[in-house]
Each structure stands twice: as C-alpha cells, then as structure tokens.
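Bench notes, afternoon.
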Amino acid sequence: GNKGFLAIGDWISSYREELIDLLKPPKNRLPSYSTVRRVLLYINYEEYSMCLAKFFNVQPACGETIGLDGKVLKGSYQIENDNPNSDSHPAIMLVSSYIVERGLILEPFEVDAKTNEIKALPELLKKLALKGVVFAFDAINTQKKLVN
C-alpha cells in the first residue's frame, strides 16, 4: 500500500476514473490530498479498530486460543538530534494477539516506551477481559505473577 498522505493522493489521481466508476461520488469529485490528510489525522484509531472488530466479528469465542507475542517495529527507532546519549524516539514495541483457530489478528497493544512486554501483558489481558479462552505465550511471559 501507499505510505504517506501525498502517496495516497497520487494513488487517487492515478485511479481517478476507476474510483469514480466504483464509488459514484456526487459531481464525480474525489477527495484531494488535503482532505485525505485532514480526515486521517483526526481518526481515533482505537475507536476505529473497535468498530472494525465488531463489524467483522473479531471477538474470541470461548475455547479459542489466543497467541500473544511482543515485537519491536523495525525501523521505528530514531535519533532526532546529534547527542549520542539522547534517546529522543525509542523503538515502538507492540504486543500482538492472534486468534489461532480463525487466523484473525486482534488490535495490537502498544507497550509504553519506559516498560517492556512482561509488564505490559497483564494490562493487555485486563483490557481484553476474556474468559474461557486459552492464552499461548512465549517463554518470556511464563511469569508466576501473570498466571495468578
């Protein structure tokens, strides 16, 4: 997919006729780069994700297995100044949840930059508020406190 607002605007321009045929917008007008940018900047992604999950019925059922694993997003670490001791933009870490039986991915959970996967997992489990499902973790998350 296209990355960035300008690339999305270019894509809309490139497929103008096809999009007009498909969407049949009033007066055959498609959104400009500026409109796309404004809309995407104001989306509440947590609410949007919840709406999509509800629409596509991405809720784990009793007896299903949820696989959880933490990953650091490649390329997300950035140093924004010349000070080698500065950690101005730490890498982004997410804990992903996966419904094994249906091959569906739940909303990723962002780990606070000042903590780690082990400390974030109880918070994610509380947020998911699931009963009757089986959780599968990797070895790093087999902590006694988590099981209790």
